[in-house]
Design brief:
The structure is a homodimer. Chain A is mainly alpha-helical. The first copy, chain A, is built from 14 helices and 14 strands. The first copy, chain A, has helices spanning 4-23, 49-65, 70-86, 111-127, 131-147, 169-180, 182-185, 187-205, 227-230, 234-250, 254-271, 300-317, 320-336, 370-387, and strands at 35-37, 42-44, 47-48, 97-98, 104-106, 165-167, 206-207, 212-213, 216-218, 231-232, 283-284, 298-299, 349-350, 360-362. A 3-stranded antiparallel β-sheet of chain A has the order 2-1-14, with no helix packed on it. Chain A has a 3-stranded antiparallel β-sheet with strand order 3-4-5. In chain A, a hairpin with a 4-residue loop joins β1 and β2 (42-44). Chain A is globular and about 55 Å long. Chain A starts with a helix and ends with a helix. Chains A and B meet through β5 of A and β5 of B.
Chain lengths: 389, 389
């Protein structure tokens, strides 16, 4: 496992970060372009709050964890200025998207815009400690907690009472978000928020009998036999497990780390496509046809988050199982998602057989986040293993 | 083209209709099951209003247009009883879905539930002329017209004013729905509703310069360079063209029929996959990556609606072009979607290469509708050609 840290570092600093530096800055109206082809052409200029916020977070994090490069701080501030001016409605809720000029296009129905905004301004505050950044991060975080019960508000199309479901995504994000925001939230808040969330994930979304993590459970935390209730998203569950490993290590709760490791392997083994390799995007708990037509596609973030989980596992216990799985997923990921021809950011969407199905490097749901975050996480994680030898 | 009428008739009456008769009836709670695998297993019991209503319409239409088979009338009434009891909120809006027992699951955010309910009760009224069926159909139709400006109501997530778009689907459905409902709406209403809609489709959604039909245009009927604005759905546009051919023939407006034919070919030639055959599901007006991950899949309804359009064109002008395209699409469709092993209803979802990607015959969006309706339309259309020889 000795050479991997260097490979991941080099890809991050020589290919992926320069791609976003070169193509994503909107010098005219502020913020970032994220819809960029493999040739560097900006094919759409809308600004999606998830992706704007994630890029701010990414460059602030690079500045903090790699080196204090002024260009990176400038890049983070460039996005933050745009979001600060245009990103929120009068209630402080973050829009889903704006047009190139910053006028709102889609209402704040999606609480993950708020989650990534809180994460962005919190990270920015670490490298540029202005009170306004802390205030934005804190008030957004409070707003997320307030909206938790019905995060879609009036846009929620579910008829109340017939089949109330809890979704996995928000608890999962809160694990990571609270830890990311610990410097401004304080450790008591982190402890308080994450304790109930960890319990919910490990004892309700995780179904001990089958070993699988559900995307939606009933109000009582039980399996519900419906399209939403049967839905599995192996990559999502695996990503959550490395968030929980981080929390376990922080709290020196090594049983939790072990349980997260076990659950991670269960999702990976169940989600791995024995025929063509790679991890399925969606599956059905009972093996029925999922409603998502893209269920069998291979997505970049699923594979990169799995590599992070495996690198963390390896760093934790140096097990041959972690090493073997890391190498297997590494080979699939680097062979299929990396752009051997043009370099730069990686491809995002493959068909089941592993062929690139969209020639984009960024789009409505893919920006400067999963590839660089994973490269950074894996580099730093494996570097520590080598140093400690 | 002489043998096709018989082939389509036989497939309809010996395979597809018996499949739904055998597997879809919920004897216990009423209504229909639509989530059925290729082995006839019901894998989900939710009741989706689109599909419930479409099956009522289909069996009422078979009774009226094929033969007065009591079992078909009973089947239509079986669904209608369930919808009448459970399908609407207190304002007369149709829910999107109910659970097996008939309790609402998803709110009436989707006006196409109402469109298909109006079509269902109107067709039912033709074979069982009860006043209540006429009343349900008429009041639902009026409600659709009232909701037209903002059909999603409070569930609309678009921020008003920044980029208002008109969507193609409702005008397109109204062309067919009004004609279907002519017996109870009267010809003046049909004329009034369809005139403005035809104009909108042929002069705004259809872009003469490129020859392509857009899924969304601005309030002023212009192209908008955004994901929604660039979206093409060739099958949708082709289906609309056979609705418009029907209106042209009804009004003896043969220029309109000719224009619809031309537009149909333009979408078909542009949407045809030169590499693997079949018609793409979604494309981008400028050739950019679409946001829909399933863009390159081949869907049953796209191909069946294209066959209807081609059969109608052939019946109209006997052109060698219509014949050649009909045979080409027929061969692709019958080879790939028809279930050679189990018979019955056809498969719905193929990957780009033409391999079945979901082993279902029905699901959340596929029921007893496009396959039998197309088989019936093509049979009856081509039978008339042979008779008139």
């Amino acid at each position: 496992m000795d050479n991997y840290a260097e490979i991941y570092k080099s890809e991050l600093l020589n290919e992926v970060v320069p791609f976003w530096e070169q193509y994503s800055v909107d010098q005219k109206y502020g913020g970032y372009f994220t819809c960029i082809t493999n040739k560097g052409v900006v094919y759409d200029t809308d600004k999606f709050m998830w992706l704007q916020a994630r890029q701010i977070w990414m460059f602030a994090t690079l500045y903090q964890k790699v080196k204090p490069n002024d260009a990176w701080k400038k890049m983070a501030l460039h996005g933050a200025d745009f979001l600060e001016s245009h990103g929120r409605d009068t209630g402080g809720n973050w829009y889903f998207s704006l047009n190139q000029h910053g006028a709102p296009l889609v209402q704040p129905y999606n609480i993950f815009s708020d989650c990534f905004a809180a994460m962005a301004f919190s990270a920015l505050h670490q490298i540029e400690p202005l009170a306004k950044y802390e205030q934005i991060a804190k008030s957004t975080f409070q707003n997320i907690l307030n909206r938790r019960g019905n995060s879609k508000g009036k846009y929620n199309k579910v008829y109340p009472g017939t089949r109330n479901l809890q979704n996995f995504a928000l608890p999962m994000i809160l694990c990571n978000l609270s830890l990311e925001m610990e410097p401004i939230l304080g450790s008591d808040t982190v402890q308080e928020v994450t304790q109930s969330v960890i319990d919910l994930i490990m004892n309700n979304f995780y179904q001990a009998q089958s070993g699988l993590v559900l995307e939606n459970v009933s109000d009582e935390g039980k399996f519900v036999d419906s399209f939403e209730g049967r839905l599995l998203n192996p990559g999502h569950a695996i990503e959550a497990m490395w968030f929980i490993m981080n929390l376990g290590l922080r709290n020196k709760d090594y049983d939790l780390v072990k349980k997260a490791e076990q659950i991670m392997y269960q999702q990976l083994e169940h989600g791995w496509d024995q025929e063509y390799g790679g991890i399925f995007y969606f599956m059905d708990y009972k093996g029925h046809p999922p409603q998502q037509l893209e269920w069998d596609q291979k997505l970049w973030w699923v594979h990169l988050e799995t590599l992070v989980a495996l690198a963390k596992t390896y760093a934790w216990n140096k097990s041959p199982k972690a090493e073997a799985w890391f190498k297997r997923v590494h080979n699939y990921t680097w062979t299929h998602f990396r752009d051997k021809e043009n370099g730069g950011e990686w491809y995002g969407y493959l068909n089941r057989e592993g062929k690139v199905s969209l020639n984009l490097k960024g789009g409505k749901w893919k920006g400067c986040f999963h590839v660089p975050r994973a490269l950074l996480e894996i580099w730093k994680t494996l570097e520590k293993v080598t140093e400690n030898k």
